[in-house]
Amino acid sequence: MKNILISGASIAGTATAYWLRRHGFKVTVVERAPAIREGGYKVDIRGAALRVVERMGLLDAVRARSTGMRVATYYDGSGRPVAAMDADLFGGRTDDDVEIMRGDLNALLYDLTRDDVEYVFGDSITGIADDGTVTFEHLGPRRFDLVVGADGAHSNTRRIAFGEESRFARYLGCYISICTVPNTLGLDRAEAVHPAVGRTANVYSTRQDTAAKALFMWSSPPLGHDHRDVAQQKELLARAMDGAGWQVPALLEAVRGAGDLYFDSVTQIHMDRWSTGRVVLVGDAGYCASPASGQGTSLALVGAYVLAGELATGGGTEEYERVLRPFVTANQALGPANLKGMVIGSRVALWFQLTMLRLMPRLPGRERMVERIAGPIARAANAVSLRDYPAAEDVAACRE
């Protein structure tokens, strides 16, 4: 039985842990945080990723925890509603796509694996030797047959095995920040959006959530911020949104007291290969598509399924890359395209977008508009054929 270490108890990490254990591997997960991360923002599960979730037996549980969002309303600077659209169309969802809070999904995956996988919290990898010996900040050295980097776009595992992040990061020209704020707008499964030139503010509250999430996106040159300096991040956000109308001043005041701020550049990770020696990357660590793609979670789920399946059936990391590469390429292409509609570059473009949104319910070509919004996402979400990898118990049963 191969002994595999996963760095990162992210969605990619916990999903990979599940599939590796199902294929009979011994799995350890090391996570820098003291526990599984709760909360977070809403994420979408689409296309092939839905089939992966179904094969995990989690589809009903995921649907039961869906956000239940109903509507997205656009507001101008004075607070006047100027357009509204169905929440699924706003999120580019079609057919059976599901939206769920990131923390809820990760909790489901963790519960599915916690009894069969060794989780080590509050620790991190410091080195990986050619013979598979891994050193940690706190644990003593341990040897593994393979190390899976599932530790996000700023992957420590990738840095150790492949080099500095700057070699692989492709900045898309914007920043994003999200945190929990009081639901002073009284939102009920609804989003309130204020687009302005070069920046957008969005507040939403999901089903069974008494609070709200405030999301900000804005155009900017690279800021060179410290990923762990939350006070600096809050100040940079306040500067970026200074002077914006609508509810933005009140939201920025609420951000000052937020304890769960997410702040990062909208960046993709592009690599020629995702494996070297005894290390392989999965999810954002190897092929981050950025939040603008709306496909990071789906890439993580599908990547975990394919990686574990190919390791179990002899294809290895080379076949993992061959199968997954076109899927990653299609979904990464969504990021720059979607970003143009998320952060508007000029007053003319902003006026045109709001006008089209306002008129869309009455336009004869509405179906074409829906296809324009959701069609590319749906095609990218299904741009992979999933093999039926036999689980270890199934292989054993066949041999008997």
UniProtKB/TrEMBL annotation:
One term of GO molecular function: monooxygenase activity
Keywords: Monooxygenase, Oxidoreductase
Superkingdom as given in the UniProt entry: Bacteria
Name of the featured protein: FAD-dependent monooxygenase
UniProt domain FAD-binding: residue ranges: 4-312
PANTHER family xrefs: MONOOXYGENASE, OXIDOREDUCTASE-RELATED
Species assigned in the record: Nonomuraea antimicrobica
